[in-house]
User: Fold this.
Amino acid sequence: MLYDVLIIGAGPAGMTAGIYAKRANLNVAIFEKYAPGGQIINTAEIENYTGYQKMSGYELATHMLKHTESLSVEIKYEEVLEVIDEGKVKKVVTPDATYETKVVIIASGTVPRRLGVENEDMLASRGISWCAICDGPMYKNKEVIVVGGGNSAVEEASYLATLATKVTVIQDMPHLTADKKAQDILTSKANVDFRFSSKVNKFVLGNSGEMLGVEITNSKGEKEVINADGAFEYIGLIPVTTFVSKLGITNKFGYIEANEKMETKVAGVYGAGDSNVKQIRQVVTATSDGAIAVQNALKYLETLN
Ligand SMILES: Cc1cc2nc3c(=O)[nH]c(=O)nc-3n(C[C@H](O)[C@H](O)[C@H](O)COP(=O)(O)OP(=O)(O)OC[C@H]3O[C@@H](n4cnc5c(N)ncnc54)[C@H](O)[C@@H]3O)c2cc1C
Assistant:
């Protein structure tokens, strides 16, 4: 079977593209390797998506999935391993099959960047987490560290402060970089402490290999060990695009280079959402990209007839 559009990723960008494609009567399917919703299922609360004053990321993902399913958009729970461009037909390769399509929309998002310090691998998911909403409840009445100072770090630290007895935020810059409202909420909390201009050197282990805390160095070269039961890292993102590396459509960091129509330099291949080179990675910009990609894919499909 030859699809009109195959979408890679069922996050906000991919599901929106699926909705727009189905409503345009296109033969469409979305591939998802984990769970529909993408990064928002790991987000405690979303307060800046128009129409929803405050909602958990999981709830918003559920609304998006219900909307997608209500239109019978097919979701294939398969990981895309490669996209092959053969001109008017593109191939999407998964471990289960190779699918043929006229258009591919890449909406594969990002994954959290890791610090890359000593003992991090050993403690990954056993003391170090990248998801406060998933793992935060394990640290009720305990002490945690949050690494980072941007919106994700600051918002998730505020959430963790409602559970943990103490949250220490470690930021390598001299100040937080999150928006002012998020900063105000965090700094108003009595159980939150900050270490600015400080870098994490390593995670400190106990005798049984458990997490004891982190060792940091500040800009004066002073070392300090901060005790904690858990650590949450929010230090940036890495695009998930290795499966299109042979297409030559990514920049040196792996982000998809797409124009304002979401077109890449390969005709019929579009990029949408966080995996694109872009200024603001948010739900509202991801959904917007998904819609724009489909509107332009429609024009491209007309040229094939
Ligand atoms: C901690 C945190 C808090 C945030 N808070 C907010 C907030 O308050 N407000 C806001 O607007 N935004 C927030 N964001 C950002 C928001 O989550 C993202 O901008 C949004 O999820 C991007 O959507 P996307 O569809 O582009 O990508 P993603 O949400 O990353 O979805 C991509 C999907 O593609 C799938 N995928 C990847 N590769 C493959 C493959 N090879 N095969 C099949 N499937 C694949 C992934 O499994 C994933 O489900 C936050 C992000 C984080 C990490």
Observations:
- The longest strand covers residues 98-106.
